[in-house]
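lol ok so funny story. i was supposed to be doing the assay writeup but got distracted and ended up predicting the structure for this chain instead. priorities right. anyway since i did it might as well share w the group, maybe its usefull for someone
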Amino acid sequence: MMVRPYVVFGILLTQYLLANVIWAGSLGARDARSVISPRIAIVIDDLGYRYEPGELLATLPYPITMAVLPNAPYAFEIAELATDEGQELILHVPMETVHEGEWEEGLTTAMNATAFTNTINAMLDDFPHVVGINNHGGSMLTADRGRMYWVMKELAQRELYFLDSRTTSASTAIAAAQAFGVDHASRDVFLDHVQSDENIAAEFDRLRQIAREFGQAIGIGHPHPETIAQLRHQLPALIAEGFELTYCSKLLTRAPNKPTDYSRHHVQPIR
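and the output, tada:
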């Protein structure tokens, strides 16, 4: 049977159009993937012992989540400066460690519920602009689920988030946060466990790798001169490489029925 020419033409036209639709769709998918930048948040712990490092960090032209020790001598000054400069402020709450010897005054497993609750609320009352907390030490306390429940109960009432510094693999912090509907995240990389330019640069590379693989990563550092020098070098390099720098509050696992915008806590936009 002879096939009419216009039928053949119609079939060929349909195939051509279909092929172009498939090609355009695949190109669009590639373009969509290309515009989704891996996100990185930098958290700096142990702020408040000295004023100068806090000032340097607060005035960097990049988003830094600043974790202030509540009992440090310059804690209030650094907290005020961070807020004025538009940086994100969290409280670096001292928690009991497994190591023997003296530790910062803070939350311990020896406290009963009343003493524990009064202690954490006193810290939080002193720093009304914080949007969350993370643990300073805490290798013993974060492994105690009952006391982490006490922590999360107070955070839930105040709508604050919890960042697990992950000082122990036995931490129950995330499970406790989930149980109380607290927004939460976990540290991916300690940037300056070894304080040298080479090591910190290598940890930034590891942070890059994690962000590329999972879409985001959180790095924790400290106000050491080597760390601050590396931040000045690494942060603009990350932006040039296509990473998005952001605050820790933007990389949380969100609990149901909780606010998704912490920007109301920032007094001024980042410079």
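The helical segments are 5-35, 51-58, 75-84, 113-126, 145-158, 173-180, 197-214, 225-240. The CA atoms of residues 184 and 196 lie 30 Å apart.
back to the writeup now i swear
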